[in-house]
Amino acid sequence: MQAPHDPQLRIRSATDSCSRVTRSSSLGLAAVFIATLLAADPVQAQPLIRLAAPRATVDDFVQVSAGATHTLALKSDGSIAAWGNNRSGQCDAPALPPGLTYVEVSAGGATEITFVWGTNSTWGTAWNAAHSTARLSSGSLAAWGNNGYGQCNVPEGALGRSRCWSTVNSSDTNARISALGSDSLAVNDLTLSAIGLPDTTYLFFYGHGPASDSGSPFGDGHLCIDGRLVRIGTASAAAGGLAQATLDLQAVGITSPGAYSFQCFFRDPAAGGSGFNLSDALELNFVP
96 pLDDT band (50/70/90 cuts)? Predict the structure, then answer.
């Protein structure tokens, strides 16, 4: 039985698309598939609620994300315009408190995000046909629309923005880095995690400033951080594909607010090649 419909909104502290429907030779079959996918009840689907596209000048829009049956457009003033199927409230972008704006939107498809939640507990991509997600100027994430599988329950404490990319290692997956805790220097409560590693030695490192989106070839992966690199702690052994490190920010040299970028280095002799690899990068903006 499909999970119940719940348009409830969740916004919690967290800091970082167009979707395509593969064309079939039978448009009727594709329509039936989409209707079944979006149905709140497997027996009787609710009628679609359609919103018309807004009228705007070309300069108004700075990003557009097209989902299966709805579209989100980020405007230059940090607001969101939405149109299409709104049966689950996926077009109802919530109003934000003064001082906050939207900076990135996703209406569905293969979307890379900083943290994963819902029924899929592993890193990957998601078909968010009936819900919407967005990143705020504070670095937090917002999600709204159908919440039948917990896809709008943004986890508390997830931080940062994923940058660059990682390559497949000997564990047949990509190593991905994330962070939990606080981005406050005063609170000093930050834990780095990386998943998808082989069970070999690893260590985390960071650099000052934003990470690169492309990176430079390094070992079997990509070095996504420019400038001076700072090692965090000593090498440890991953277990179950997981690497973790709890940071004392002052001890590792993070003492001033601003952007810092993190990656995880790990040995990977079983993959051949250079014998080592890297995760993707995580960019964090620390506050006092």
Answer: confident
> How many whole angstroms separate alpha carbon 172 and alpha carbon 109?
23
Query: Hey, which CATH number is domain 161-286, 1.20.120, 1.10.3470, 3.30.420, 2.60.40?
Result: 2.60.40
Is residue 130 packed enough to be buried (19+ CB in 10 Å), middle (13-18) or exposed (0-12)? buried
pLDDT in tens, 12-37: 333 333 333 333 333 444 444 334 43
Question: Structural domain boundaries of the chain?
Answer: 10-158, 161-286
pLDDT in tens, 257-288: 999 999 999 999 999 999 999 999 999 989 89
Please tell me whether residue 128 adopts helix, strand or coil conformation.
coil
In the DSSP assignment, the letter for residue 113 is: -
What is the C-alpha separation between 153 and 86, in angstroms, rounded? 19
